[in-house]
Design brief:
The complex is a heterodimer of chains A (296) and B (365). Chain A is mainly α and 296 residues long. Chain A has helices at residues 21-48, 52-56, 70-75, 81-117, 123-132, 142-151, 158-182, 186-194, 199-210, 212-228, 231-236, 245-253, 260-290. Chain A has 13 helices and no strands. The longest helix of chain A has 37 residues, at 81-117. The chains are: A mainly alpha (296), B alpha+beta (365).
Chain lengths: 296, 365
């Protein structure tokens, strides 16, 4: 017990708690955005388990009365033509996206490291040029790239797509990774070099492991970018056997009449790898995007 | 172990000279502190010795090799960084093992050496932890351990204590000193804290503006600073400097203030003052050589008290003399108050007289 006395007659002013309108505005915005993104997804999944007839009904059947997985069975059955095609497109997409991702990392990692660590003539200009690419919509490059690809004899090859996706993916990858390397203290490399490592070993053994979250995040970005891309795949490829999923699905299901449930189940299957990728790697992803914000 | 020789070392970025013609020798087993304010070139000098940045000119020898062209890994050095630079993804054991792994030692040897180093620094119980799970002092020890584990010729330390809190800093200061004593290691130690340099080093290299100002034992630097920069940088509180005019000739020389009073000089000091290039000098005096009188006496000059700072053991008083701030130390309990008019007496034998134009200490020829 202390013997301290508060001043006699000291008042406790009443502090009024006002409604925090900003907080409520924030919640409302988030709710709206959630519905905005989730409702189409929900509709996609609901439609994919309907029959063709139920999907076309008017007034619309909101909740499928007789849900069926037939559409999925058809798509995943290698015995049927529709299944064979779908799985081929799926493989094409996967293979193009994976190569884009791997090549992207192989190029972006050393480029970002160089932008972060070395002072060379034209460094600022080059980095600026890399970012400027992102200021133009991808469609602007459609004709020039088509002519370029034709000149190189790459039309109707997956190589044309991989090169194009790299062109669009690399600026973001390099920019993200540079931020990452900027945050890794240069003293770590200096210590490694004094401890007996060459410059390359210091990079490989010390810096690379520390930038794993950044590499994973940029990989997700380039994979998704390549996976979802439509316009270039549609323009550069004309053979059925080469189609990637976005183009393949669209051509396939709208050739004679639109098979909505089939289209929706194919779309759903197409989104599965992306969702899985995100769920598995999201902690790296969040770390990559917030890393720069916190001082160590 | 080895000596280090720097000869005419230059590092410039275009027209900016970070290190300008610096030469000094660190003897085998010596502890040398590179000291100066930020931007003086001390860390650049250390990085040049380490080989982390290329030199623009001059030579550096470690032991019997000229290392100018050698990679850091081939210079047989170890370095402790200000932020410790522990590898965050590696355990303490693997941090200590890394330099040995890079030198392709066998697993058994690595294990033995890491355990020995850990024992020496009392971090054996931390070997399995990651650096982020350690306190600042523990990280500091691990950084030291990583430096000494492979028995290098030279230890380089870049402000290793400046990230620690005040109490820990004092403790680690004596530990590093002890570590140097036990290993008889050659150490080059960078610090901006002159107190660290004075307390730890055999010799100190005071740097300013990329130039080496003075290279000598701390006692000599303290007793005979070569110029006003060194005088005002070394010592705490710093040496007080008062600009004055030289009047008179021969033995009748006095220093005259713009306030009108005159300070007679001893014979030796008079001869020093006579050598001033422009008839003006800067008078330097350390706080402990000054006395405060309440009344005017011969040889005293008028002053006005600005602040009084009791520290327990000693009370520091700042007074204004001829517009300059002058530190005086007093016994605690001496009655004195701000704005009081007092008189300050100088100890002629321990006065420093610097040339006003060149800032260099004047010698009685």
């Amino acid at each position: 017990m202390s013997t301290i006395e508060l001043p006699s007659g000291a008042k406790r002013p009443v502090v009024k708690k006002s409604v925090d309108w900003w907080r409520w505005a924030g919640r409302a915005t988030l709710t709206f955005l959630f519905l905005f993104t989730m409702l189409p997804m929900a509709w996609m999944i609901l439609t994919s388990v309907k029959s063709q007839f139920a999907a076309m009904q008017y007034p619309p059947q909101w909740w499928p009365t007789q849900p069926t997985l037939n559409n999925y069975f058809k798509l995943l059955d290698p015995g049927s033509k529709i299944g064979r095609d779908f799985l081929l497109y799926f493989w094409n997409s996967f293979y193009v996206s994976l190569l884009t991702t791997i090549l992207g990392v192989v190029v972006a990692v050393p480029a970002a490291y160089a932008f972060s660590r070395f002072r060379f003539p034209g460094r600022n200009f080059l980095f600026f040029a890399v970012l400027v690419r992102n200021m133009f919509p991808a469609v602007v490059f459609l004709m020039p790239l088509f002519l370029l690809m034709r000149w190189m004899g790459l039309i109707n090859t997956h190589g044309s797509l991989i090169l194009t996706y790299l062109t669009f993916g690399l600026p973001l990858s390099i920019w993200l990774l540079k931020g990452f390397y900027d945050n890794i203290p240069i003293q770590l490399e200096q210590a490694a070099r004094i401890d007996g490592a060459t410059r390359f070993q210091a990079f490989l053994l010390i810096v690379m492991p520390l930038s794993t979250p950044g590499i994973i995040a940029t990989s997700i970005f380039s994979f998704i970018g390549a996976w979802n891309e439509y316009v270039y795949a549609y323009t550069f490829l004309s053979r059925d056997s080469q189609m990637t999923l976005p183009v393949g699905i669209q051509r396939f299901f709208t050739e004679f009449a639109t098979d909505w449930p089939g289209l929706m189940s194919a779309t759903f299957l197409m989104s599965v790898p992306v969702v899985v990728l995100f769920l598995v790697l999201q902690k790296y992803f969040v770390r990559a995007l917030t890393e720069g914000a916190v001082k160590h | 172990m080895a000596e280090i020789v720097l000869k005419d070392v230059v590092k410039n970025y275009g027209s900016i000279y970070a290190v300008n013609n610096v030469s000094f020798t660190v003897e085998d087993g010596e502890f040398v502190a590179l000291v100066g304010p930020s931007g003086c070139g001390k860390t650049t000098t250390l990085n040049l010795i380490a080989g982390l940045i290329p030199m623009s000119g001059g030579d550096i020898a470690i032991g019997d090799r000229i290392v100018n062209e050698l990679d850091p890994k081939d210079r047989d050095i170890a370095m402790v960084f200000q932020n410790y630079a522990l590898y965050p993804q590696k355990s303490v054991f693997n941090n200590l093992a890394f330099p040995l792994q890079m030198r392709k030692l066998t697993k058994d040897e690595i294990e033995r050496k890491v355990k020995d180093a850990a024992k020496l620094l009392d971090i054996t119980h931390l070997l399995e932890r990651k650096p982020r799970e350690l306190s600042g002092g523990q990280q500091q020890r691990v950084a030291l351990g990583r430096a000494l584990v492979r028995d290098p010729a030279v230890f380089l330390m870049d402000e290793p204590l400046s990230n620690l809190d005040a109490k820990l800093r004092v403790q680690m200061r004596s530990e590093i000193k002890r570590f140097h004593h036990n290993l008889n290691a050659t150490v080059v130690y960078v610090t901006h804290d002159q107190l660290e340099a004075v307390t730890m080093a055999d010799k100190m290299a005071v740097m300013h503006g990329g130039l080496l100002q003075q290279y000598d034992s701390p006692a000599n630097v303290f007793a005979n600073p070569v110029n006003t920069f060194v005088a005002s940088f070394v010592g705490s509180p710093a040496m007080s400097l008062i600009p004055l005019d030289v009047k008179g000739k021969g033995t009748g020389v006095v220093l005259q203030s713009s306030e009108g009073w005159e300070l007679p000089l001893s014979d030796e000091n008079a001869r020093k003052a006579n050598r001033s290039t422009n008839g003006k000098v800067v008078l330097g005096a350390r706080h402990s050589t000054l006395k405060i009188h309440k009344t005017a006496a011969p040889g005293t000059v008028p002053a006005k008290v600005y602040t009084v700072e009791p520290t327990g053991d000693v009370t520091f008083v700042q007074v204004f003399i001829n517009g300059a701030v002058v530190n005086v130390s007093l016994d605690p309990g001496t009655p004195i108050a701000p704005d009081e008019e007092v008189f300050v007496e100088f100890d002629q034998a321990r006065l420093h007289i610097f040339d006003d134009a060149t800032t260099m200490a004047l010698q009685a020829a």
